[in-house]
Amino acid sequence: MTRVNFAGNDYLGLARDPRLADALCRAVREYGISSTSSRWALGWTDLHQKLEDALAAFTGAEAACITGAAYFGGPVYYSVFAGSGRVVYCDETVHSNQFLGMRAAGLEIRKFKHLDAGDLKRQLKGHKGPAPIVAADGVYGISGEVAPLAEMAEAARAVGAEIFVDDAHGFGALGASGRGSTELCGLAPAPDLTVLCSMSKAMGCNGGFLTGRKELVEKFRRSAAASGSAIPPPPIAAACLESLRIIREEPELRDKMESHARRLRAALAARGVSVVSDRTPILGMVFKDEFEAAAADKHFLKHGLVIPYFKYASEPRENLLRGAARACYTEEHLARFEKAVATLKR
After folding, report:
1. Is residue 313 very low, low, confident or very high in pLDDT (cuts 50, 70, 90)?
2. pTM value?
């Protein structure tokens, strides 16, 4: 029996799309495999410039800065505020790249309750000193929860705060145009808003990028974390450009992903398995405890479905099994999932 991935982050199924492979192979022949060096040395090509320009245009931001990995986003963003005396108010469960960046920059961290814009607002009322930074993940990668970004932005703007959203799991998959959780929540690009996105999830490629106002993005480009590390190789940049074209021109992929998500959630609900959120393709399946979640992993594997359980680094709850609905599933794949769920021990 062929095993099928029912987890991971390839939400639109683009990682194996032959059009991306063709774009990548053409670029390999013209540019070679490696970027060979950093942005400001010899690594930058016309493909990288086209990619940054295309990402900025698609998101509506003033500018974009690509990085070798989305994980560099936190260190890049917060490094430009080092020594500023700013305080960061962040959701208590933001991704580790954010905490890495805050701590490396020596910024004071004040956590607000998970997804609780009211708690954020209460804390900001007592803020003193330079304008703070308000930070959250747009989509929480294990549970699939979407942050209340509109309410958070309202609270942040009342005190003139910078707003930082890690939208690694939202970009390409959420929003009417695929622009991510900020679009889903009605946040338009603005001078106070910086968004971190991944090119290794819905885009099916590799690397990351930050979007925001031009002045700040230029500081990102010249930060030690960005300028001193490798950028995505030219063939990856070519594949990213093709992926972005598909995301922009083929919204039916998102429609199919959402349809599959509804069907999988319905199968789980019929068996008495709830999911944390129904707004994303992430299936944060809730079990009694970690042992039941691990047993479900083994049960799915017997049916040829790969949904691995482990202690997820960015999720404090240990009773979740994290699956994903992807656009590329066939009818046979979906039926197999439904059969596996119907025989799941509860």
Report:
1. confident
2. 0.96
